[in-house]
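Mods, move this if it's the wrong board.
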Amino acid sequence: MSLATSDLKESLIAAKDLELIRPTRNDNLAVKKSVNTANQVLSVIRGHDEVGIRDLMYYLDLCEHTSRKYLNVLFELGYLKRSRRGKEFYYSYSDDSVQE
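Not the wrong board. Structure tokens:
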């Protein structure tokens, strides 16, 4: 069962620890899988200067829709920054979102 974008946002809003977003014990399996995928996305982006949607599809074996969904949600929550070149968006790690 797929987790709606709004549910994904709610699951990640409280998790501002960029090293690892941690689900709580009470979260259901769909939330835990979504948090795991979000961590994988962040991990891939931390390992590269910039990542496009097609790159993420390749690295994590995700479909285009899923890649876009995670990148957009993580961007909206401040984990990522985005730049546009032509028709493509590229995402990079947002240093501004690190909490001290």
